[in-house]
Fold these 2 entries.
Entry 1:
Amino acid sequence: MSRRLFKGAALACALSASPLADALAQDCCAVVELRQYTMYPGKRDELISLFEERFIESQEAVGMRIAATFRDLAGPDRFVWVRGFADMQARHEALTAFYYGPVWQANRERANATLEDNDNVLLLKPAFAGSGFTLDGLVRPALGSNGAGRLVAATIYYLRADTLPGFALAFQREMAPLLERNGARILAQYVSEKSRNTFARLPVREKEYVFVSFAAFDDADAYVRQQRALAADGSWRGVLAAHAADMARAPETLLLQPTARSLVR
């Protein structure tokens, strides 16, 4: 996939009435994309400005939901964002409408000129009913609003296919309570969505099996305090040791600052 194709935001869910729909009522979306972009040096704020002005409402108008947009605090040229969809068919329809539509066509050259790499994409679904982002009642800040001072830590646990279900349960029952006891506010928990990619023009990392946790902190200092507390917590060290064999490789943590118009903040 060429970096010349810019990849978008997140979709509002429209689940039909059913027991499953009721169970997922709290979740923003049944399918989400976690998108990590690397910009050309000095181009991140240019893309964010264009994104917040032109690409939020225009994507939501065709069936997506822009849940979150972030600056990566560890990388001055990295932009991370999350968009969601009602299901995989809705993803295909919404992406087709947007990327072949007038707003993208009019602005794609400006967007693509900022992008060094935009193929780092994980396709996810809520790990449990109600574990996805809850956006009901949130109002998106207006264009030109001040950014949020909070920090969001997104931790990606890379697992083997056979250990993913068990790890997800262990995180919910054992790890999440310890994280929250030490200062985190868990926002969402996701696992890999292994359905066929219904919009092949935008690739995803299909070979990965991941569990992704999003947690909020008042600021970076609060995150540092939590990490120190966890390092001293024997229970946390024990849980990590118990599940070390589940990992395909070491976890990755993204330290993220919400942009001015992000709903998740």
Note: The chain has one domain: 19-134+147-258.
Entry 2:
Amino acid sequence: MSAEYQVQLEWGPQALRAHPADVVIVADADAGPTGDALRAAPAGLVLAATLEGADAIAEVVLAEQARLGRRASITIAAAGDAWPDGSLRVSVADTLVAGRVVDALAERGIDFHSPQAAVACAAATALRGAAGHLVRAEQAARSVGVSA
């Protein structure tokens, strides 16, 4: 049952309804409007993640868990984008950011994560050397209206 995982990963605003948590980490590579809504989440702690900031995010989460004195529930909300009809368009860039955060959490012993989080982590670690390029390429393609 997914509710038992400490670290959950979901996409879009539905992430917050699916997995309310002590800590919400917003993976939003392009700081878009979907991420704005997620960053306003009603959680004890809301953090904005980037590829470069994953280690710092993990340190803050570890400190929050120590402050709580128990295992903190963590939802990583990958913002994604919107298709012209308004439906959620999953973003590779946001998935890689989320995966980088999952990896940084796991390095600190916070590693009881959902299958979705595990897959994002595997992608981010396998593509570690190319992640920055892939994020920039997706952003560039979307800015000119091309499917990435």
Note: The two ends are 33 Å apart (CA to CA).
